[in-house]
Amino acid sequence: MAGRLTDRIAIVTGASRGIGRAVGVALGSEGATVVLSGRVEAELVQTASLVREAGGRAEVIPAELADERAIKDLVAKTSERFGRLDILVNNAGITHSAPLEQTRTEDLDRCWAVNARAPFLLCREALPLLRQAERATIVNISSVVGVKGYPLQSAYTASKHALRGMSIALAEELRGSNVRVHVLCPGGVDTEMVSRVRPDIDKGDLIGPGEIAELVLYLVTHRGNAVVDELHIRRATASPWFG
Ligand SMILES: NC(=O)c1ccc[n+]([C@@H]2O[C@H](COP(=O)([O-])OP(=O)(O)OC[C@H]3O[C@@H](n4cnc5c(N)ncnc54)[C@H](OP(=O)(O)O)[C@@H]3O)[C@@H](O)[C@H]2O)c1
């Protein structure tokens, strides 16, 4: 039986592990062709195997997203190889934990480059292709820190607020077009990132990467009159509404 995303082409950044890998596999399970990007090719190749096992097609295109040329190359290669793009999931991200007074300019710049500038540039470069699709979706993975602020995470928080703000502006620009823009704001998800940054959270309480992937799947497959702009996803044990 054909999946709901058969013949659809998706780019997923940060697909070498964690949430990005789960999103790639979920899109593959509906028959999508998933362009998997990240820096570590060997890990992307592992994700590609999982996407194929799930029933999808996979293409590995490594890219350092702090590099504008690599971003342009990623979109150009996708265009050359497939001639279309239906889904862009801006998932790649990094954290930095330090008091603001001890945050070095290079750490701030790095957070900015990967978490905010790269998705901005990817949206810009991908839009000509996305506009050609019958219906296209951009999903930007922000964070609970995209709507709140936590101590020791000022650089990360600033970049995730920026990503969310850019997404709101772009959604308005694209209103009425074939391209929808969504933002996901997850709390703690069970990945390498959270093990490093929040070792205090009980692993058993963390959200599964597959749970986030299910929500992405909903956003890219649902095309009724109802639109979900943004999802706040918290751990079941955390305060409602990120309180
Ligand atoms: N885990 C959480 O609790 C949580 C909560 C809210 C939001 N998020 C967000 O969800 C997204 C995924 O996070 P995760 O938890 O899955 O993190 P993760 O396990 O650390 O994975 C991060 C991904 O981003 C890629 N990446 C990092 N720097 C890159 C760069 N310069 N160029 C290209 N790719 C790069 C990594 O690939 P390579 O190392 O191969 O480059 C990896 O695939 C991030 O945007 C994160 O901020 C996570």
TrEMBL record:
Every Ketoreductase domain range: 8-190
InterPro entries, A to Z: KR_dom, NAD(P)-bd_dom_sf, Sc_DH/Rdtase_CS, SDR, SDR_fam
Gene3D superfamilies: NAD(P)-binding Rossmann-like Domain
Xref: PROSITE patterns: ADH_SHORT
A Pfam match: adh_short
GO biological process, one term: monocarboxylic acid metabolic process
CDD domains in UniProt: SDR_c
Assigned protein family: Belongs to the short-chain dehydrogenases/reductases (SDR) family.
Protein name: SDR family oxidoreductase
